[in-house]
Structure formats: structure tokens, C-alpha cells
Amino acid sequence: MRSLSTLGFLIGSLAVSGGYCTADIETRSLDQIHEAAKAEGGVVNLWAGGDEKDQQNGLKEAFETRFPGMTLNVTVDLSKYHDGRIDEQLAANNLYVDATFLQSLHDFPRWKSENALLNYQPLEFKNIFDQFKDSEGAYYGVFIFSWSNIWNTGKVDAASAPKEYTDYLKPVFKDKLALTYPNDDDAVAFQFDLIIKQYGWQWFDDLIAQNPRWVRGTATPATLISSSNGSYAATFTSGIGLTSSGSLNVSFPTQGQFVSWPQTGAIFADAPHPEGAKLLTNFVLSDEYQKASGWSVRRDLPGPSGYPTIFDMPGTNVTAFRDFMLDRAAVERLRFRFEDKIGTAQGLSPLVDDL
Ligand SMILES: *[C@@H]1O[C@H](CO)[C@@H](O)[C@H](O)[C@H]1NC(C)=O
Ligand SMILES: *[C@@H]1O[C@H](CO)[C@@H](O)[C@H](O)[C@H]1NC(C)=O
Ligand SMILES: *[C@@H]1O[C@H](CO)[C@@H](O)[C@H](O)[C@H]1NC(C)=O
Ligand SMILES: *[C@@H]1O[C@H](CO)[C@@H](O)[C@H](O)[C@H]1NC(C)=O
């Protein structure tokens, strides 16, 4: 495999100097790709970033329903662990992952420079916002993730519902906050970084004085506050979608900044099931899947019901997280500053029973 892909790279380089485009540009219909993927074996192995093992079950079900005969073998784990394991497979020349969707946005340009990614432009590639994609198609945003204010409406009255980050310092939230360790998840670290740049480290010290419960995983706070009997009532380090759901309600700050980013996907150059991987990326970028997934990575689709597009949404800068992630030295400095104040993340990864 390796020698073939090296040869492909050399030919690609020659093609560039000859003025040809080296990316594989998709022109087939989804049904034609489906036929090719079934002929190849009908399987696609996806490693997806996340912190609960069921987080991509909706994608698995939608994909397998839409494409009979296909199996989406999806494994969810923290992006910061998936990437190292992918590096191990790449180093051993023994890759069985076909595609990955991760929050570790800094990995993608590195993998591209190592010729580990397939330059491939899915059908909707031209419609993906330029800021979210590699020009050759080595990687691209697949959906938008974000944090929001979330509270349990049975525990927080409407007048106290949080909107700005300073609201969490009010007495009503003493002993009531469940928050993900910022030193355990870089997208949470960035959320705290944005808040502290605006309100200062005093805000963080005042937050600690509220005695929040620090947890691992970004789904854990929402789970804790949704319980009707527990004392935890609010968080700003989870994402549950854009509308209220059960006992939980959602708001977004307009003075403060909430974190949003394009969860980014790529197909590996040596993917054992390239047609299955292509079918998957074309499906997640389709109208059908994008319209059902909150904010879209495509500029030709409107914002979700009641919201503008992510670029027009007040209170967030969807391109800023990538720059944050690329500066690893700054991320590490920040992480240790949090660790010094609140200690190392305690407890097992919420996915540990998966390993
Ligand atoms: C499915 O994924 C798991 C975990 O990544 C892997 O161990 C297993 O071999 C995969 N199954 C197939 C059929 O590829
Ligand atoms: C609290 O509620 C959860 C379900 O939401 C239940 O599993 C748990 O046993 C309850 N705890 C107490 C002390 O009632
Ligand atoms: C949810 O919060 C919004 C404010 O962000 C409010 O307008 C709405 O009425 C709330 N919905 C519920 C069900 O509490
Ligand atoms: C958003 O963030 C990017 C990258 O950090 C920056 O270049 C840009 O100016 C920001 N946009 C706005 C509207 O602040």
C-alpha cells in the first residue's frame, strides 16, 4: 500500500507541474457511489471524535437506512486519543480506519503534509465555506459543533436563566454548576480562554468560589443537570442542539463569545474502503444530512430554524478555534494554568469502558 501511495504522490507531483489538478473530483451520484461501495465490501470504518460511545448512532442509523447493504462501523472516542492511535496505524503501515471526523483541527494539515490523506472533493465540496476546507479536498468541515448555555428549567426559574458568562457568578448558581475540566478538552479550554480574555482571571477565581463540579467529558454536565433530583442545574461546556429538549433549555450569549467550530473530516490515502468512505462523506455533506444537523458547513444552505448561518450568528467566531488549536504551545500553557488552579482531571474517561 505504502509504495503504491508513494508512487501516486510522485505522479501527483508531476501532474501538478504539468498543470493538472491532482484531486479526485466526484461526479457520480450517491446511488452510483453506493454501488461501488457495496462492491468493495459494504463496510466503512469511521473514527469520530466525541465523549460518549453512542454519540454517532444517529449518523450510523441514517447512513445504513439510506444505503442498504452498508455497515458504518463507527468508533467514538476523544479526538486527542483517536489521533495518536491513527498515527500508530500510519507508522505501522497497517491502517484499517477509512475516515475520521475530529475536533483536533491541527492534525489535518500535518497528516496532509505526510501524504496520509486522500485529496478528494465530494459532490458538495464547492459549497463548503472556504474557511472550512483544504483547497485540494484533503480535509473539510463536516458539521458544526458548539457549546451553549444549558439549564434545567425545573431548577432555574426563567428570570435567572443564564445568558452571559457573568450570570454564572450569581448566588443562584452556587453549588449548582457542572462543568467539563478545561484542562481535559481543548474546545472547553478555548471556551474558558474566550471568557477570561473578556472578563479576566478574576472571573475564573469567582467561578471557582461558586464550587462547580468538574467532570470529564462534555456530555456529562448535560446529563447531570437533566436529572430531576440532583442539585446540578446549569452548564456552558456542553452542546445539546439549538432548541430546548425535555427539562433542558438553551441560550447563546451575545456580549460574550461561545465556541463553535467545523468538526473536520478526511479520508485516508490508504483507506481499505475508499468507496465506502466517499459514500459517507458525500452523505454527511448532502442536503438531507446537513439540514438535519443544526448549523451547516455549506454556504448554500440557510441557517437552521430560527437561526442565521453560523457566520451570521452573534456571539461566535466559527473560524477562531482552528487558529487556537494550531498554536500548541499556547494551548499547553493555558492547560497548565487551569490545572494549577483546579487540579488534574479526575476520574476515568467517560469512554473508558469502550477500550
Ligand atoms: C470495527 O471497528 C473496530 C474498532 O475500531 C475494529 O476493532 C473492528 O475490526 C472493525 N470491524 C470491521 C468489520 O472492520
Ligand atoms: C436520581 O435520578 C436518577 C435518574 O434521573 C436515578 O437513577 C437515581 O437513582 C436518583 N437518585 C436518587 C437519590 O433518587
Ligand atoms: C427557553 O429559553 C428561552 C430564552 O433563551 C425562552 O425564550 C424560552 O421561553 C425558554 N423555553 C422554555 C421551554 O423554557
Ligand atoms: C475570527 O477569528 C479569525 C481567526 O482567529 C480572525 O482572523 C477574524 O478576524 C475573526 N473574525 C471576527 C469577525 O472577529
Automatic annotation (TrEMBL):
Protein name as catalogued: ABC-type Fe3+ transport system
Keyword Signal: yes
Presence of the UniProt keyword Signal in the record: yes
Signal peptide: 1-19
Keywords on record: Signal
Top-level division of the source organism's lineage: Eukaryota
Organism listed in the record: Lophium mytilinum
